[in-house]
Amino acid sequence: QVQLVESGGGLVQPGGSLRLSCAGSGFTLGYYAIGWFRQAPGKDREGVSSIASHDDSTYYADSVKGRFTISRDNAKNTAYLQMNNLKPEDTAVYYCVSADTTSRAMAVMSDLLRFGSWGQGTQVTVSS
């Protein structure tokens, strides 16, 4: 049974940094595509970033490109989202998603939405 548990969210000032973690259990995270989505109150869910299963190619939404970095540590069965230079518009609940797919780049985001397994989410609030 695939399970994902996010952690690392919290309150941070604009310009600050946070690192979100996504601990996987019940599967080998390194063999799966992993993505991060976020949803702010009253807004649609947004795909933030993904890392492909077989070649670790990455995708970033334009809104976070150059500020966020996705990575994985297969030995710890954990994925990460390093978030730098945070802005108030980054405030949202962030979800980790995994899927057994060999797609790359933006196609990974579509597969994650269609048949991914989701964590419970972690709140990120960027405010002074």
Q: Which labels suit this protein?
A:
single chain; 128 residues; mainly beta; seven-stranded mixed sheet; four-stranded antiparallel sheet; 1 helix; globular
Question: How would you characterize this protein structure?
Answer:
With 128 residues, the protein is mainly beta. Helix content is 8%, strand content 46%. It is built from one helix and eleven strands, in the order βββββββββαββ. The chain has one helix at 106-115, and strands spanning 3-7, 10-12, 18-25, 33-39, 46-51, 58-60, 68-73, 78-83, 92-99, 117-118, 122-126. Strands 2, 4, 5, 6, 9, 10 and 11 form a seven-stranded mixed sheet that branches. The longest helix has 10 residues, at 106-115. The relative contact order is 0.31.
Q: Can you lay out the helices and strands and say which pair or pack?
A:
Layout: E1 3-7, E2 10-12, E3 18-25, E4 33-39, E5 46-51, E6 58-60, E7 68-73, E8 78-83, E9 92-99, H1 106-115, E10 117-118, E11 122-126
Parallel strand pairs: 2-11
Antiparallel strand pairs: 1-3, 3-8, 4-5, 4-9, 5-6, 7-8, 9-10, 9-11
Multimeric state? single chain
Helix share, percent: under 10%
Spell out the helices and strands N to C.
EEEEEEEEEHEE
Question: What summary fits the major beta sheet?
Answer: 7 strands, mixed
Strand percent estimate: over 45%
Gyration radius, to the nearest Å?
13 Å
Number of helices: 1
| Topology, number of strands | 11
Q: Ends: how far apart? A: 40 Å
Unreliable spans: none
Shape: globular
- Average per-residue pLDDT, rounded, comes to 95
**Helix/strand class:** mainly beta
